[in-house]
Amino acid sequence: MRIPRVSGRILTWSLALAVLLAGTVIGSAMLGPVRIDPLTVSKAVLNLTGIVAYDVPSAHQTIVTDVRLPRIALGAVVGFSLAAAGTVMQGFFRNPLADPSIIGVSTGAAAGAVAAIAFPALLPFSSVHVPAFVGAIGTALFVYAVATEGGRTPVATLLLAGVAVQAFLGAVISYMLVLSGENLREAVVWMMGHLHRSSWDDVTFALPVAVVGTVVLGAYAREMNVLLLGEEDAHHLGVDVERTKLLLLALASIVTAAGVAVAGVIGFVGLIVPHIMRLIVGPDHRILLPTSALAGASFLVATDTIARLDTLPLPLGLEVGTPIVPVGIVTAALGAPFFLYLLTKREVHAL
After folding, report:
1. Where does the sequence pass through the membrane (predicted)?
2. At what angle do helices 69-93 and 5-30 cross, to 10 degrees?
3. CA 303 to CA 24: how far, in whole Å?
């Protein structure tokens, strides 16, 4: 049976990027204060399935599965989420500079998380996940409500409302940081974006939302392609424009919120990765969405490995294990110069 051309491209690119992700995961799990060979890492990972039982030194098994792999897995999930949401946002706004935070989702998550960190006695949560997630979704809903009038949500109004809400929440966050006292450093590190102290519970929190949300978004790939022609043309081609915009915005916000809630504000993943993949595979969202998500997973695992391997001595007063370089700093340090390079080469175009 002949595979349709588009389906063949999706399968080929997805398999290639899945292999790249597997290699990135194995390579990251090898590196650290204790170096472990790739064969041992692979056996330790396969032991997690319960299907096989390879003989692996107990110390190495513990390092891989209990110390390194939760952080690597969370990095993959968060990168997957941010890149998928960034792809949708760039298509939604028809702007290659759009990213998951453009309507204030990340800022809303930051407000919820900083409130939980700065005033733990006032909020009935044991972690920042729930307040961060609620803050992100609440902000997205508020921005959408402000921008909607008469059943229509103009994209330009949505963008401006997002900018205004981000500015306001930025002021609220700054005020909470002033009042946070001894919790200031923890709040600042969270806002920089990090995967420090990751656990399998974090992965369990974010993974279902990321996968289900991206799959549902993939079902609207045709509509996203048609919306690139403009809302009026999309309407004439049979797309329920306002309903589709609401669904895309809601799903992208939920996927973003799940990633930001467990890892803080990590920039440039949802901006750079979809843009690079668009240059490689083209603008068809049927191919672009899954490939960007997989590439985003590999990108964040790789950048977090750089952050995790930082060997600078600890400043006075910091305990061992304190993240000296949050991964958000690494993604910004790599992403911003690369994006400027694309600008100088005139590789950034309106969609």
Report:
1. 69-89, 101-123, 130-147, 159-179, 200-221, 246-273, 285-303, 323-343
2. 140
3. 10
* Sign (positive or negative) of CA dihedral 111, 115, 116, 122: negative
* Residue 346 pLDDT: 61
pLDDT at 263: 93
Q: Residue 229 corresponds to which tokens in the numbers above?
A: 């022609």
> Which residues, other chains included, contact 151 with Cβ-Cβ below 8 Å and sequence gap of 6+?
242
Task: Return the structure tokens found at 349.
Answer: 């175009």
The pair of three-digit structure tokens given for residue 31, joined into one six-digit string: 């590196």
Could you tell me which of 300, 314, 332 has the C-alpha nearest to residue 198? 300
| Contact between residue 81 and residue 295 where contact means Cβ atoms under 8 Å apart | no
Q: What is the mean pLDDT of each run of 10 residues along the chain (351 residues)?
A: 70 95 96 90 89 88 93 96 95 85 92 89 75 94 92 89 94 92 86 88 95 95 91 86 92 94 92 92 94 97 89 45 74 86 68 63
pLDDT for 310 equals 62
- Largest pairwise CA distance in the chain: 66
Residue 206 near residue 132, CB atoms below 8 Å = no
What are the tokens at 109?
């998550």
How far is residue 96's CA from residue 348's CA, in Å, rounded to a whole number?
A: 7
User: 197-224: buried (b, 16+ CB within 10 Å) or exposed (e) per residue?
Assistant: ebeeebbebbbebbbebbeebbebbebb
Query: Do 264 and 326 form a contact (C-beta atoms < 8 A)?
Result: yes
Cα–Cα–Cα angle for 304, 309, 310, rounded to 5 degrees: 105
Which of 269, 131, 290 has its CA nearest to residue 193? 269
The domains found in the chain, sorted by start residue, are 5-344 (1.10.3470.10)
**What is d(CA 137, CA 256) in angstroms, rounded to the nearest whole number?**
9
Dist. CA 79–CA 96, nearest whole Å: 18
Q: Is-contact 52 60, C-beta < 8 A?
A: no
Six-digit token string for 334: 């790599």
The encoded tokens of residue 86 equal 């960034």
